[in-house]
């Protein structure tokens, strides 16, 4: 039964994508098919989520080709995140992909937009539930293709360049995944990632580095990070989905999976992962300060926040079991918080025509949903209790302290310091944008539509309770 549910979870948005693309009534059929497909995906993801079992089903296997599904607590949680944030992104798109959008009025290409969003959802779900590396590669590349099309959606020179850069970097990084797959198949005759643990030490090291490169590219970690800020030329609901669930989180998920199943891991891999995570964290933090475009600020925030998960990956490589729980929890909690922040930014820009933080003031008086969304999203991603990222950061720090090495203690101190600085800086923008009298842009903003408000309030709720949903599942 579970294999049917997972198959439907991947197939329903794919079918919706085809319907959206070929309909002759794009504004109605594309939007409704997207809503229905994404809502059904949530329902099926919830049913799958409630099974509370590890499950594997291989439908076809011949040589390096294997088609099947694998589900455990990690994939169930990330699958749920992908489905819910996808639904919320499509909900806001009903107002955003519209001629009434003050920042980017849109009167055409509805088919293309909704078709790509649903294919993006299907591909991301397929990736996290794949039972084999070859199946993972297919979905890995499909998500890159979808992001290319969606980032380029406005077809300006900036947008087309950003889409191409995103695709090129993530595709080049994917060669690490190809190399690891080839090595594992050549050595074991299987394309199961779990066979990584049986490789000789030299081949295992090469495979681990290859898989990390693929993860860094998809997860926008240094030195592959440059594509993500440029990708902010995409429609904001696309940015929300790309950051929160359907692209960069897949890189982190792959890295966690790799370390979970690698068996004995060379110390050098843990050191390399830790060094690159720290470089990414500190470098992206310094780029918070000059940003006045809310989407650019959130882009560098995502790069920094993903480096927490990759710090967790280094702790897993050092032998911490608690870091597995902490890292998956962080993906789940941060996904809802970052999705909320981007959709709040989208609500502000479509109703007021600005993304400039200096022009956004008094949200709580004029746009209560945006004001609440901005507040909860800030608290979530900066790790304020009781929101989900607090527990993720706490468990990551405890994981580092528990290991008791000089490196792990250093990582704990760096995470605490970054959290403090990021909180202070984000608090500055929170007080400036949410409270006080409305600025001219906000005072003259249009009322938010019901779909946008629904998406924001759903993510406000989930940002608040995400840790309390995830922790019982991760402790199965």
Automatic annotation (TrEMBL):
Signal peptide: none annotated. Its main location: membrane. It comes from Fervidicoccus fontis. It is a multi-pass membrane protein. It holds the Pfam family Proton_antipo_M. GO terms for cellular component: plasma membrane. The chain crosses the membrane at residues 6-22, 29-49, 69-91, 112-129, 161-185, 205-228, 240-262, 268-290, 297-318, 324-350, 371-394, 406-427, 455-475. This is Hydrogenase 4 subunit D. It comes from the Archaea. Keywords: Cell membrane, Membrane, Transmembrane, Transmembrane helix. It is found in: Cell membrane. Residues 130-414 form the NADH:quinone oxidoreductase/Mrp antiporter transmembrane domain.
